[in-house]
User: Which sequence fits this backbone?
């Protein structure tokens, strides 16, 4: 069960590193190569979106069918275990949302950089004429 969350956390860390590389200021040649590399990584990373969505659905289903530990019915150990499971579920929801959000950010940053490059080429052609 923990393997899927470990994989998702590594993917989020990789996406964060790519987002950081794409947003850092760099010379044009280096920036264009970084954006090209990030664009190539976007297609395989698309698999993260359905994976994260499935994990969110799984978390929602588990939350709906979770035994509620409230009142004097539960012992202290049961209450602690219940609270820990709630905290883990909240952490995992944040991880899933962050995976989708970082992918979206990287996609749009690459898209905007490509549009800027195309506009610069058009401007260069207009100046030459």
Assistant:
């Amino acid at each position: 069960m923990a393997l899927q969350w470990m994989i998702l956390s590594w993917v989020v860390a990789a996406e964060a590193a790519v987002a950081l590389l794409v947003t850092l200021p760099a010379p044009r040649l280096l920036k264009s190569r970084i954006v090209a590399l990030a664009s190539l990584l976007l297609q395989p990373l698309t698999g993260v979106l359905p994976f994260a969505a499935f994990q969110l659905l799984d978390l929602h289903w588990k939350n709906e069918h979770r035994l509620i530990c409230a009142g004097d019915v539960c012992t202290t150990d049961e209450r602690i275990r219940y609270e820990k499971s709630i905290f883990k579920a909240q952490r995992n929801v944040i991880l899933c949302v962050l995976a989708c959000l970082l992918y979206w950010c990287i996609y749009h940053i690459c898209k905007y950089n490509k549009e800027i490059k195309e506009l610069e080429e058009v401007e260069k052609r207009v100046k030459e004429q």
